[in-house]
Amino acid sequence: MLYFYKKNMISKTIFTKKIFIIFLINSVLSLIISMRYFDFVDNVDSIIANIFIILSQIGHFAVLNSIPLFVSVLVFFVSKRILLTKIINIISSSVLIILIKLDTIVFSQFRYHLSPMVFKLAFGKRASDIFQFTNENYITAFLFVVGVIGFQLLLFTLINKISFEDKKIVRIIKISSSTLLTIVLISHLGFAWSDANSYRQITQTKNLFPAYYPLTAEDLFVKLNLVDKNLSKNEISIETESKNINYPLKEINIDTSKTTKKNILIIVIDSWRYDYLTKEITPNIYNFKKNTQEFTNHKSGSNMTTGGIFSMFYGIPATYFDSFTGVNKGPVLIDQLIKQKYDLNILSSSTVENPPFNKNVFTKVSNLELYTIGDTPAERDMNIFNSWTSYIENYNQKNPFFGFLFFDAAHGFDFPKNYKAPFKPYLDMVDYIGLDNDYDAKPLINRYKNCLHYIDNLVGKIILQLNKKDQLKNTIVIITSDHGQEFNDLKKGYWQHGGNFSKYQINTPFILYDSKKAPKKYSHLTLHYDLSPTIMSDYLGTINNTNDYSSGKSLFDTSNRNFFICGYNQKFAIIENKRITNIYTSGIFDVVDNNLNTLNEEPNEDYLIKTIYELKKFYK
Q1: To which H or E segment does residue 311 belong?
Q2: What is the pLDDT of residues 66-102, one digit of tens each?
Q3: DSSP letters along 256-270, please?
Q4: 0.85 cut: is pTM over it?
């Protein structure tokens, strides 16, 4: 009896070893298929970074192939049936390899991995609008599927000819398993370090491989003093030729007779709510707007600074952010300002290194100040105010200027201690942990209003100085925000921004001053995407179709918009008039109304298709 028991245990052990060897072979096959992803690796000039990306690939696809391995082992130990386990392993391994192959094809076309959204489009009514296959494609696909299944059957046939009592096989299993575990550990720890140090040669792998969710631990690395703030500065800081990006679609052409040589000043107030441009909260801007073009239905390209500023300067969705950052691809707006000899003065209260606007939006700006001196947001706001007013005071008028002022005090809920705050009672200190549905928001909101009032005071002085220096009449002044700010308005536990795509987080004030335009108020939908095309066409003489370099149109184009894309790489949404379709990193989506109530409705398939095209438009 003991003899048969031992024999049975040996038989089970041998079979699991066979499954493991098949796992190793399928991992190698997956690696070979996944080599296509390397066509989309950009701007890697380091041998170490290249080695790391390869290790990440090995580790990740080994992890994916461990799914059939663990499922098969589990089935075997529960059922104790070898034939059933073989069938499960063949099916699961074949499906995984086929999906990886399919994903490489989809990613090469759309820069988007397989997801519920992609499958919905593939099997929806409008599938033929996106996926067009010839008879040869169907035959090739059929042969590939048959080949994969046949390969799995062949593996089980050949594996039986190997003696698993041989110590060499046992050694191979032990070494390979420990090696793969080490590689997975190194790849995740390496990514976490790279993420903390903004080392994008490596962090681009996050979007490169399917179902890849690497470890991040920025706070831990900061505590361990393993964050080198100078590392990202040492990366290639000039625009490099990209094998993947096709932006702009056509060369920018300028009609010199249409260039205005007007000064341009963009003032951005971080986290400024759309409904807080009022006589009480921002009196100076309120009075100034009486002489401007006011756009009362304006929305940002994102609910966070990353996408808000990116969409403003590029006029395209911030889903391109990482790709453009990886090769230091600047916006055509900045390119033209430089070509037309504008004097660029970029002043940001918050650092332009995080988010890394120094590697995309302002990558070509010479002598760019990466940070502003000051211990608090309010102090830094005052410092950029002083820098700007000093600049205007000494402005030589030889070339037109382009100014960008980014005020951060409202975002940081900060204003000077000696400032006469008009809104009371207000919090002395913000307790972010205490923010919940039962929280009394009024003192917090009053503090926020006081911050805006403080910034408004600075902006009012900037406008007054331009007027006194006789520069206002020759300056286009745009005042807006990067995104909105929510105070649990919808009673769903959302505070500040970055949490949803309701109007409280994406709507912003937007006014444009042009001395040659009579004051007017517009109520049609306008977007941050429209800023770049408006400046390019109306003031820099660009004669290209705006579609060549933007997803937007002129701010003054009142034609109807049915939807637009809002968000960034990690999460974006399709914003309609009465619905919001949230699309998450995994590709899972849900549909909510404007009050974030879940709707039992499907996404608009036509808008999904147009979204997919917009997200791939500027890729080769």
Answers
A1: helix 305-314
A2: 999 999 999 998 988 989 999 999 999 999 999 999 9
A3: GGG----EEEEEEET
A4: no
